[in-house]
Specification:
Structural class: mainly beta
Order of helices and strands: EEEEEEEEEEEEEEEEEEEEE
Number of helices: 0
CATH architecture of the largest domain: Sandwich
Radius of gyration: 30 Å
CATH topology of the largest domain: Immunoglobulin-like
Number of domains: 2
CATH superfamily of the largest domain: Alpha-macroglobulin, receptor-binding domain
Distance between the termini: 78 Å
CATH class of the largest domain: Mainly Beta
Largest sheet: 7 strands, mixed
Helix content: under 10%
Length: about 325
């Protein structure tokens, strides 16, 4: 633990939050800190959707009259928010009048990321000294408004200084997942194989403009889609794949939000046929699901189909002819 530096004054540890009277400034040689949290000018200020990210800008200012040493910065967030990464951090001699004396970096996944340590010199020529940094947070949780509170302390202060909480609004959002199965799981040349791809929405908002892209293995060809579709999705202007496709594209669905009855879901069942001369082996499908707001779910290497027969064996390699 870092020790506290003695200020040599009866005013050791006087705190100042932004906006308080500057009358305290004349007491001793310690600096007084204020700390703010805001959205960067080049970043969105929300509202955000669960599963997305938000960028914040954290600034601490030494309002004087003296220096402020051993500054530690922290942000208290809701339990559903998680620190992801620091996007810009003052270099060892960065900030305005700031020097980083000991590297302490925030822990990924933390709900209370903490950074340290800096020294901020006393204001000079009417200019305050500052430390400024940007960081990104993963946003989760139910829809609502949440407070994110910046904090600062230093060896010159007798405790933690709280800045004004920044209100973060989380809107309802969809949350997509996908799964797939195949029947039968083993097939031969020219036989029929049926796949079912199921898309679920466990989020708090409908998934509108839903589309599904499915990549088939090279040993089968799409024949037809089984209708009506399974699930509780609503249908708009549908797009269905043509016969003979090896990449299937479906669109025009809306998945309802999850409720007490369960998630919104859509089951796409389609029939394929194994090609006349398949190479034996195991083959999987992959899929990508997306909606109009940019929610995406991926499904890879699943619903394995085993093609009965001898696997492909390469022929002998001919030796190069002497010249």
């Amino acid at each position: 633990m870092r020790g506290r530096r003695l200020a040599g004054s009866a005013c050791l540890g006087i705190l100042a939050v932004a906006g308080l009277s500057p009358a305290l400034a004349g007491c001793g040689a310690s600096g007084q800190l204020s700390v703010t949290l805001a959205y960067p000018k080049d970043a969105t200020g929300g509202p955000f959707q669960a599963g997305g990210t938000a960028q914040f800008e954290l600034t601490v200012t030494n309002n004087g009259p003296g220096d402020a040493d051993g500054i530690l910065l922290a942000v208290d967030m809701p339990s559903s928010f998680r620190y992801k990464e620091t996007d810009s951090l003052p270099p060892p001699t960065g900030g305005t009048g700031g020097v980083r004396t000991e590297p302490l970096n925030a822990k990924v996944g933390s709900t209370s990321p903490t950074w340290g340590y800096w020294d901020l010199g006393a204001p000079s020529g009417g200019s305050l000294t500052t430390i400024d940094m940007k960081f990104t947070v993963e946003i989760n949780g139910t829809p609502g408004s949440y407070n994110v509170t910046p904090r600062a302390q230093s060896e010159n202060t007798a405790g933690t200084i709280d800045g004004k909480p920044l209100v973060v609004v989380v809107n309802p959002s969809a949350a997509l997942t996908a799964s797939a199965k195949v029947s039968p799981a083993t097939a031969r040349a020219d036989s029929s194989v049926t796949y079912t791809v199921t898309v679920s929405n466990t989020g708090s908002a409908p998934a509108e403009g839903l589309s599904v892209l499915i990549a088939l293995p090279p040993v089968v060809e799409y024949q037809r889609t089984v209708q009506p579709f399974g699930g509780n999705a609503s249908e708009g202007e549908l797009t269905l794949p043509p016969a003979g496709s090896v990449e299937l594209f479906y669109s025009g669905f809306t998945l309802p939000a999850a409720s007490n009855a369960g998630p919104g879901y859509l089951s796409l069942t389609f029939v394929t046929q194994v090609i006349p001369e398949p190479v034996g082996g195991s083959y999987s499908i992959s899929a990508q699901v997306s909606d109009s707001t940019g929610d995406v779910a991926y499904l890879g290497a699943t619903a394995a189909l085993t093609i009965a027969g001898a696997p492909y064996t390469p022929g002998p390699t001919l030796a190069p002819q002497a010249t």
